[in-house]
Amino acid sequence: MGVDNSIYFVFDKKPEEVEDFLKREFEVDVRDREWDDPWIDYLKEKGLLGEDFQLVVSGELLFDPPLRTDEGETVSNADFYIYTVEGYTILEIHPVLRSRWWFVLSSEVIRLLKQFMKGEPLLICGYRDDTDLTKLGFEHNMSYLFINWLPEAIKTGKLETLPSALTAIRKELLDLENGLYELIERPGREEKEYVLVKSLGDYKILVAVKEIDLTDEECYLELLEDRAWFSLEIVGVIFKRIGRRIEDELLLKRAEEFFREQVGEDGH
After folding, report:
1. How many Cα atoms sit within 13 Å of 185 on the Cβ side?
2. Closest by CA position to 92, among listed 213, 188, 7
């Protein structure tokens, strides 16, 4: 059936305000139906979701213009869902067709994020449903638990854990200057990884990159040549804490070049 991809936008606004933003910015078709998912009820009974966790509205939105892929195709629409979680409103978009999402150009991903940034979300990240959340400490492997966790990521007022390999956050919620930082590995893993922090308007863009992709010449060339990297990164749950700043000039230079190659003219 393939892998489902989701992008989440965390707002400190009422659900009605988020829905109004969607209607202003996109062509939207709201579904006229009541949502009663038994899994939400089950997780509430187990104490894993708060009583205010609700799926309040869903529908479909159109991308205009459609998002271009590196294979000459397009992604023109997405399903959307609006949740209330711990006083926040969380918008989920679910691009259609799922098989094309990983081929959407990175510059198109940034263009889409900039469009959603007009609605002033606090945090933007993603998830794909082949992620095993139990390996990250969740009790069940269900996306509702990931959605429920998102307010925790920013509740302290500062982002400390990187949710997905491409994440965007309001500048005031990230106490880091632009640059390259280490990602602290989870126990049992030895793969070294960094995160590049870049400014984009009122936001910081964080992009994870493996050390080998910056140090191995063949891997680095492949990294530069793949112009659809961000569509995969934004739905790649990473769940790592951000560590110390890296002062290695070569690593920083290569990470910066990789970012420029991906975003093109949309990265400013």
Report:
1. 9
2. 7
Closest CA to 123 of 176, 166, 86, 80: 166
Question: How far is 263 from 172, CA to CA, in rounded Å?
Answer: 23
β-strands 54-68, 27-30 pairing:
antiparallel
CA distance 172 to 193: 24
| Distance, CA of 102 to CA of 239 (rounded, Å) | 20
pLDDT level of residue 158 (50, 70, 90 thresholds): confident
Cis, bond preceding 65 (omega within 30 deg of 0): yes
Question: Coil, strand, or helix at residue 111?
Answer: helix
What is d(CA 43, CA 164) in angstroms, rounded to the nearest whole number? 23
What are the φ/ψ torsions at residue 140 (nearest 5 degrees)?
A: -130, 155
Q: Could you give the CA distance from residue 66 to residue 44 in angstroms, rounded to a whole number? A: 38
Contact 258, 100 (CB under 8 A): no
Mean pLDDT of 206-220: 95
Q: Residue 98's pLDDT is what? A: 80
- The pLDDT tens digits for 19-55 are 999 999 999 999 876 667 888 999 999 999 988 999 9
Tell me the residue type at 113: L
